[in-house]
Design brief:
The complex is a heterotrimer of chains A (284), B (317) and C (244).
Chain A lengths: L1 H29 L6 H18 L4 H24 L6 H23 L13 E4 L2 E4 H23 L1 H11 L1 H6 L4 H26 L8 H14 L4 H22 L4 H15 L11
Antiparallel strand pairs in A: 1-2
Helix pairs in contact in A: 1-5, 1-8, 1-9, 1-10, 2-3, 2-4, 2-8, 3-8, 5-6, 5-8, 6-8, 9-10, 9-11, 10-11
Chain B lengths: L4 H23 L2 H27 L6 H19 L3 H23 L4 H21 L2 H4 L5 E2 L8 H24 L1 H11 L1 H5 L5 H27 L1 E2 L1 H4 L2 H14 L5 H17 L7 H16 L3 H17 L1
Antiparallel strand pairs in B: 1-2
Chain C lengths: L5 E10 L2 E11 L4 E5 L6 H8 L7 E6 L2 E2 L5 H7 L1 E3 L12 H9 L4 H6 L4 H10 L16 H14 L4 E5 L7 H18 L2 E5 L3 H4 L5 E6 L2 E6 L1 H6 L1 H8 L2
Parallel strand pairs in C: 3-8, 3-9, 6-7, 7-8
Antiparallel strand pairs in C: 1-2, 1-4, 4-5, 9-10
Helix pairs in contact in C: 3-5, 3-6, 5-6
The chains are: A mainly alpha (284), B mainly alpha (317), C alpha/beta (244).
Bound molecules: adenosine-5'-triphosphate and magnesium ion (MG).
Adenosine-5'-triphosphate binds next to strand 2 and helix 1 of chain C.
Chain lengths: 284, 317, 244
């Protein structure tokens, strides 16, 4: 039991970290909550599905197409909506929520309302001491660690990455030092779309494709931001693990139906006790 | 209460609106009336949202939570325990106000974007809980159907729903025009400064929450008895929240009249489009309209009409 | 009345590692005008925030009219007669000048808020008393110059009829004419209503004629106090302002 919780907790947390990273980025750089983020995840899943299972393209090409769709949509959200409302986080929050529902309707119009099952990215099951884990979810966890590691390196060691970090810490200061914040914002939104799409492919193989699937990842992302505080990659990673483990423990020990409830309660609790998040306002 | 000239002039408009809507059943069929009944309920929900969020800036993403408490309370009391409606509906309103207090607690500590998220979390929790906690009472995923109706027939229900909506509308509208309304919108602009002008913002906010919850409770309770059923799906859902938000914003937040207009517009548009767009396309369309309008004209339809009215007056002079 | 109107005793406030106020004690007598000066970041605004209960002190006590008000919330302190202006004016942005004043005049009583209508004449009267013309009463804050915004804050304070007024950088961002107007206004109000002031200002020339006494703060503590002339001659003060 303990081992099962440990393994399941780790893989689930890995997936959650991957889901949340694109959302956290936007929040730490732009200080706005993008409630359309779940749509990038949904879009990633559906485009991958359409390319692979309907058009018969190879896995790699389908992945690339999904990422491109995420990038495009991320950029569009920023350029058409967020940039116009940028000084008002509440307006951004409301309008991105409306956008998400619009996109949900679009998905139904294009793909129909019936849920679709996706093939796993890789097949196979790993068995260990009577516990079985799919290779697919292990791959998701692996990808999650690679993405987070890559992002950390990018932010530390590249010029663009350092610029993004500068803007996330101090917008005005960054302007003075000659960085163009609107370019940085575009890069961030594009990256957020890409991460969302990648996470979407794995999330969809983990559950299934349907037009409501954007809500749950969005809630997980919000929870990660709230629990982890603004910005820090390590903080988000830890937060994802807290959420993943709390959920695994509740579902295995108490009741499987309480999957979402524990996360919600965690959000409310943290907001009431430590509104700045457990790890405060750290850097990206 | 002192009523100034402008308020009197507006009240004449309210009266005209009331008379017109009361005469309407003479001219239109029951089908149209049924559509308008939905508009009236949506208007109640949108006004409830507006009184809290449009005024004070505490954006609620959890109004379905409040409406659902009202709906479930009267549904459970009347259906499971045979409590008469004249008791179960007031009880539902009280229960909603208790739920509103739950909502209010986080508002003591957080505001802005985070507040909206907490209320969203409340809604999601209730969605999960109604499915698993005491399904014998709540009906679980299927909910409860076969609820007692208050009056029968389209015409009666039309008058009932319009009467409630109209009363709520006038009362809320008068409230926002008082100094209390001014103080509540000052909270949206700068809560700290309101405190340093000698107001207990806690008291003001609590009042706004209670009024909003009570309106949601009334709306939710009458609504479930009208449609005769309640279930977690359809109630605690982002799509429902979306409809409320869009009605309020489309019409123009902070005005009470705006949400009523938004509700009529949205419901009528929805019905009008039904033959052409039977499914989700409608959401696509009016979500799209709402987005464009929100970005281009955040003050909503009401402001468009108010501006047009002002231009007309200038033009006549 | 015996004893000072306001007294702070050993007041302390830390933000994490920053000790913004450390062991400050002083009193103001009824009718007195006290200047509070010091370099940027000395802790002056923090002292105001503490006196208004907009921040919780880390330690120390605040007394007003012989009552310990350390635990009294902001709006109750306002009712007891303390009001403030902000270094950066904080108008209610989407409301006219008149409506801004109305918020200040409104009673902290839900029933009265609903039943008593606005008194437009009284609003205009308060507006006029701080120098607004009748047309300006209907304008929005976004159309006002800095001097008028500071006036608007004064008006909102006058509306709550305080005994003690805390003025944070009232002269900052103003033209010489506006400074003269505000100074006149302060003198006038004091003569008519017997107000007590604590004024924070970097503009020492504007401050000098107004104050009876000055306290100099540096790094959260009082380093000197006395009349204006005594204080500006003080070596420690020169050091704090010009040193480093
Ligand atoms: N809310 C806060 N959180 C953290 N630090 C704060 C906060 N408010 C003030 N400080 C810090 O406390 C110190 C004192 O600030 P304060 O604003 O009181 O100074 P001041 O004397 O008013 O300066 P100025 O002349 O620039 O207005 C500064 O170092 C400031 O950075
Ligand atoms: Mg200051």
């Amino acid at each position: 039991m303990a081992l099962q919780i440990l393994i399941q907790g780790f893989v689930l947390s890995g997936l959650y970290a991957l889901i949340a990273v694109g959302f956290t980025m936007i929040f730490s750089v732009g200080r706005v909550l993008n409630l359309a983020y779940g749509v990038y995840i949904m879009l990633g899943g559906y485009i991958y599905y359409a390319a692979l299972q309907e058009a018969g393209l190879p896995v790699f090409a389908s992945f690339i197409l999904a990422i491109l769709a995420g990038v495009t949509f991320g950029l569009l959200t920023y350029l058409l909506l967020v940039r116009r409302l940028e000084d008002n986080p509440i307006a951004v929050e409301i309008s991105t929520l409306i956008l998400a529902v619009v996109m949900q309707a679009l998905i139904v119009v294009i793909f129909g309302a019936a849920p679709k099952t996706m093939w796993p990215v890789i097949r196979g099951v790993l068995r260990f001491e009577g516990i079985s884990v799919t290779m697919n979810i292990l791959l998701a966890t692996g990808v999650s660690w690679i993405v987070l590691g890559g992002l950390t390196a990018f932010v530390r060691y590249t010029h663009l990455g350092r610029a993004i970090r500068a803007v996330s810490m101090d917008r005005k200061g960054a302007v003075i030092s000659g960085i163009e914040p609107s370019f940085i914002s575009m890069v961030t939104w594009a990256m957020s779309g890409a991460f969302g799409a990648i996470a979407g492919v794995f999330f969809a193989t983990f559950t299934q494709l349907d037009s409501h699937m954007w809500v749950f990842p969005l809630i997980i992302s919000v929870a990660v931001v709230i629990v982890g505080g603004i910005g820090s990659i390590v903080g988000s990673l830890i937060a994802a693990h807290i959420i993943g483990f709390v959920e695994t423990i509740t579902t295995t020990l108490i009741a499987a139906e309480l999957r979402g409830v524990s996360t919600m309660l965690l959000i409310i609790l943290v907001l009431l006790v430590r509104p700045k998040g457990l790890f405060g306002r750290a850097e990206l | 209460m002192s009523i100034d000239r402008e308020t009197k002039r507006y009240l004449v408009w309210w009266l005209a609106f009331g008379v017109l809507m009361c005469l309407l059943p003479l001219g239109v069929g029951p089908g149209t009336l049924r559509i308008l009944i939905f508009a009236h309920f949506l208007a109640m929900f949108a006004m409830s949202w507006d009184f809290l969020s449009g005024r004070t800036g505490y954006i609620s993403f959890g109004h379905p939570f409040l409406i659902g408490i009202g709906g479930y309370t009267t549904a459970i009391l009347s259906f499971r325990f045979g409590v008469p409606l004249y008791f179960s509906i007031p009880a539902a309103v009280v229960a909603t106000m208790v739920g509103g207090t739950l909502f209010f607690l986080p508002a003591l500590r957080i505001r802005g974007t985070y507040f909206a998220l907490v209320t969203l979390a409340f809604m999601e929790i209730l969605y999960q809980l109604t499915k698993v906690v005491a399904p014998k009472v709540t009906g679980g995923t299927r909910g409860i159907s076969g609820l007692e109706s208050i009056v029968t027939g389209a015409v009666n229900n039309y008058y009932l729903s319009f009467g409630i909506m109209f009363a709520i509308g006038v009362v809320l509208w008068l409230l926002i025009r008082t100094r209390l309304g001014v103080a509540l919108s000052a909270i949206r602009m700068n809560e700290e400064a309101v405190r340093s002008t000698g107001h207990s913002t806690t008291k003001l906010k609590l009042f706004a929450f209670m009024v909003s919850a009570a309106v949601s409770g009334v709306g939710g309770a009458f609504y479930v008895h009208y449609i005769g059923s309640i279930a977690p799906r359809g109630m605690f859902e982002i799509n429902f929240l979306f409809t409320i938000l869009v009605a309020a914003l489309l019409g123009g937040a902070e005005t009470i009249i705006g949400p009523i207009m938004g509700a009529y517009f949205l419901t009528v548009l929805l019905e009008y489009l039904r033959p052409v767009m039977p499914g989700m396309e409608r959401y696509l369309l009016y979500g799209g309209i709402a987005l464009v309008l929100y970005v281009v004209r955040p003050a909503g339809i009401y402001s468009l009409i108010a501006d047009a009215g002002r231009k007309m007056q200038e033009w006549r002079r | 009345m015996a004893g000072p109107l306001l007294e702070v005793r050993d007041l302390r406030k830390s933000f994490g590692g920053i000790h913004a106020v450390q062991g400050l004690s002083f009193g103001v007598d009824e009718g007195e005008t006290l200047g509070l000066i010091g370099p940027n970041g000395a802790g002056k605004t923090t002292v105001f925030n503490l006196i208004m209960a907009e921040l919780k002190p880390t330690g120390g006590e605040i007394w007003f009219r012989g009552e310990n008000i350390t635990r009294v919330p902001t709006h109750e302190r306002v009712k007891r007669g303390i009001a403030r202006t902000y270094q950066v004016p904080q108008p209610f942005g989407e409301m006219s000048v008149g409506a801004n004043i109305r918020v200040g005049m409104a009673p902290d009583d839900l029933w009265k808020l609903v039943t008593e209508g606005a008194d437009h004449a009284a609003e205009a009267e308060i507006g006029r008393s701080v120098g607004f013309s009748d047309e300006q009463i209907d304008t929005l804050p976004s159309e006002l110059a800095m001097g008028d915004l500071r006036r608007l804050e004064m008006a909102r304070n006058v509306a709550v009829s305080p005994a003690l007024l805390l003025l944070d950088e009232v002269f900052a961002g103003l033209t010489l004419r506006e400074i003269a107007h505000i100074s006149e206004l302060l003198v006038e109000k004091k003569r008519k209503d017997g107000l007590t002031y604590i004024i924070v200002s970097h503009d020492l020339r504007a401050l000098a004629p107004l104050v009876d006494r000055v306290i100099v703060m540096s790094f959260g503590a009082a380093i000197a106090q006395g009349t204006f002339d005594e204080v500006v001659r003080d070596a420690a003060v020169r050091e704090a302002y010009l040193g480093q």
